[in-house]
Amino acid sequence: MEDRNYLAIALQNSAENLKGYGVSIESLNYDMWKALPVPMPPLPEQTAIAAFLDQETAKIDGLVAEQRRLIDLLREKRQAVISHAVTKGLNPTAPLKPSGIDWLGDVPEGWEVKELKHLIADGTTITYGIVQAGPEFEGGIPYIRTGDMSGKALPVSGYPLVSPEIEQGFIRSRVFPGDLVIAIRATIGKCLPVPDALPMANLTQGTAKISPGPSCLRDFLLFMLAANGSQTYFDLMAKGATFREITLDALRRLPVVVPPIEEQRSISAYLTHQAESFDTLTATAESAIALLQERRAALISAAVTGKIDVRPLMAEGSQAA
Questions:
Q1: pLDDT band for position 1 (cuts 50, 70, 90)
Q2: What is the pLDDT of residues 50-100, one digit of tens each?
């Protein structure tokens, strides 16, 4: 006989150990599961191990859950700090006026509200890029897709390459350092700056370029586009049930709060510092989760392979209770 809880834990542990050989649990077939080596101590020890691991992993899982809640709170706080700064400024006593837009609320006097299309550089337009990129062209022009925007920054290299002949037909959507790239499909509204080390690239249909003009600093606009108000607007304007996107017209008409340039500079510097602090705290919490999960896996492995004798530990727990 065997303890079913123990058997499930031991099988999972044996399967996890195969990851080092490039085998995932999902790829195991029935015969492979049957062939997994599983330590089978006497039944009383199986029961003791299962009870011990239920108890100890529950504690670890509780700590992991706390760290995940902390990450969620940090994300919410980060978003709130950004949204408040770009719509209310850094002076809590500044007189306010109605913005004329419900989801923006009141804004400081002296600030303007303009549509995004009125804030771009002369000679540019807010537009998407290449419709059909064709096959990969060695030595061609890199182009940015929504999939390249999954991280916190656009990569400097590794993009697919399109032929110069095809790219030449989409000069209007070329992006350069100083520009912003925004997703208009999939992760709608996610916006990232073009890296300084990427001298020139183009776009696909799922992304659009924004070239800030002299009245709006790039970094301020980047924070403004990430704020709750802008994200609310994108949600309202998104079309489609399973394949959501926003039109270029809707993106161009996005209302943007525009402080004087010096205030934009101060707000951008403040938010950059705040974002770095939140990112550091989040990274610390993520590191704690990784360590806890490693501890959990090591504890299970040690218990089911007999490297620790759980019976005295369970006895101590019973006496303490």
A1: low
A2: 999 999 999 999 999 999 999 999 999 999 999 999 999 999 999 999 999
Q: What's CA 273's distance to the chain center, in Å? A: 19
Name the residue ranges covered by the structural domains of the chain: 4-72+297-320, 112-258
In angstroms, the CA 241 to CA 94 distance is: 42
Topology (CATH level 3) of domain 112-258? Adenine-n6-DNA-methyltransferase TaqI; Chain A, domain 2 (3.90.220)
Burial (0-12, 13-18, 19+ Cβ within 10 Å), 194? buried
Instruction: Say if pTM beats, i.e. exceeds, 0.90.
Output: no
**Which two three-digit tokens encode residue 213?**
């003009």
Give the Cα separation of 287 and 161 in Å (integer).
36
Instruction: Select from 256, 222, 210 the least CA-distant residue to 103.
Output: 256
In Å, the largest CA–CA distance within the chain is 79
